[in-house]
Specification:
Blueprint: H1 2-99, H2 101-142
Amino acid sequence: MRSDSSAFRELDTLVRNLSDQLAGYRRRALSAEARARELEQILAGMSGKLDEVRQQVEDLQGGRDAAVMETRTLQAQLASARQDLQRAQTALADALSRATPEAQDQALAEENQLLRQRLGEAREKAGQLTERMRFLRQQVSLGVER
């Protein structure tokens, strides 16, 4: 009987140890289930927020796309305005260079030179016409018919 009673004690110890382990496993399982429910509630609350965040991201992307298009338009307008400014500055510099007394004197000198050249050409033609008239008068006075 002794061997039976020691076996029985050993079996009893094993059953107690297993009971303690099972109780620990049960506590851990209950704790894990509670934590899982808590996380499910958090996720349920976050899924609504996730949808909100997704909508905000889409809105921001749409706004960004519009801003990019507006930026491109403004850059094109800026380039055009810079070209207009460059043309205006060139025209102003031209006008200012023509407005100086030296530039006016130079323009007048060029015009005088051209007028002198034309006057010389006119004198030459007048001389040719005078010679022709003289020739024709001589011919008329001599009575030569044509």
